[in-house]
Amino acid sequence: MTLAADAKYSTESDYVSRYAGARLQADLGQKNTVLGLGVGLSLDTISAAAAQGPAMPTLRCDAAHPAEISCALDVYSLYGSASQIVSRNAVIGVSIDASTLRGYQSNPYRQAIVGETLVGERHPTERTREAFAASARYYLAETRTTLIGAYRYYRDSWQVHAHTPELRIVQEAGHDIDAAVRLRYYTQDGAYFFRNRYPADDAAMTQFVTDDVKLSSFSSYTVEGKLGVMGGAFELGGRWAATRFEGIIEYAVQHNRFGNAVIAHVAVTIPFDY
How confident is the model over 6-28, as pLDDT tens digits? Predict the structure, then answer.
C-alpha cells in the first residue's frame, strides 16, 4: 500500500491557486489488481487585474457581492480507480472523478450579447462534476501491436453531458522505434443557460449568461500520429541510448467557432540516475 501527498501553489496577475491532495494506492494479488483513491482541495482567488485600462474592473462574485475586487473559488475533488490484469496480454481499468465547485466561475474578461448590448459573463456559483471512464488494453505478441480502447462519460449540474470514445494502436518496430495512431471523437450538450444571443426582456433567461464556446453544444474529431525513437536507434551509447525522442502531430475537426486545428509536439526524455 502506498500513500502519497502533494501540494501546489501558482500565481498570476489575476489568478492565485493553492492546492493540496492525497492519494492511497493498494496493490493486490501480486499487483494483478491495483486500487486507487484520492482527494483534493483547491482554494483559488480570481480578479481582473490583467484588464487593460485606467482602472481594474470589479467582479460580480454572487448576488450578495455584485462589485468586488476579487472573488474566491473552492474546489473539492474525489477520485477513484481500479485496474485488473485479466490475462498475460490484457488489462482493463475503470475510474471515477467527482468534484464540487463553489464560488466565482465566470471569465472576468468575457462578455455576452444581451439584446443589443454586451454584458459581463455570469455563471452559477455552484457546479458539481462527475466523470466515469473505462479502458482496455490488449497486446498482440505475434505482431508486437498494442490495441487500446477507452470511453469516458461526463456530466455536471449545468446539464453538460459529454461522450468521448477513443481508439489507439501502438506498433513496435524493433526495440528502439514505435509508432501510434489515435482516433478520438467528442460530443457534448450545451449548458442549460448557454445562448448565442440573449433577449433583453427576459429576466429569467438572463440571470446567467455566457459566451463560452466550451459550454455550447458541439462535437469534434481528432486524428493523431506519433513516432517515438530511442537513442539506441542512432547508435548512441550510455545514457543517450535510453533517451527517447518523440514527435506528435494531431488534426482536430471542431464543429464550433474555434474551427479546425493542427497541433504538433516534439519531446526529448533523458534518463538520470539518482
Answer: 999 999 999 999 999 999 999 99
pLDDT tens digit sequence for 157-176: 999 999 999 999 999 998 89
The single-letter code of the amino acid at 171 is Q
Q: What is the rounded CA–CA span in Å between residue 140 and residue 227?
A: 19
Q: Which of 98, 106, 154, 100 is nearest to 126 (CA)?
A: 100
| Res 94 pLDDT > 80 | yes
Select from 11, 71, 77 the least CA-distant residue to 42.
77
Nearest residue to 255 (alpha-carbon basis) of 218, 215, 211: 218
Contacts of residue 18, defined as CB under 8 A and 6 or more positions apart, other chains included, come to 8, 9, 42, 43, 44
> What's the whole-model pTM score?
0.90
Q: Measured between alpha carbons, how far is 169 from 196 in angstroms, rounded to an integer?
A: 39
Contact call for residues 163 and 184 (beta carbons, < 8 A)? no
Cα 76–Cα 101–Cα 40 angle in degrees, nearest 5: 20
Q: Is 93 helix (H, G, I), strand (E, B) or coil?
A: strand
Nearest to 14 by CA among 67, 83, 70: 70
Look at residue 274 and tell me whether its pLDDT is greater than 80: no
pLDDT in tens, 98-138: 999 999 999 999 999 999 899 999 999 999 999 999 999 99
Count of positions (residues) in the chain = 274
Residue 114's contacts (CB-CB under 8 Å, 6 or more residues apart) are 197, 198, 199, 200, 206, 209
Determine the Cα–Cα distance for residues 11 and 147; give it in Å rounded to an integer.
41
Q: Judge whether 96 and 77 are in contact, CB under 8 Å.
A: no
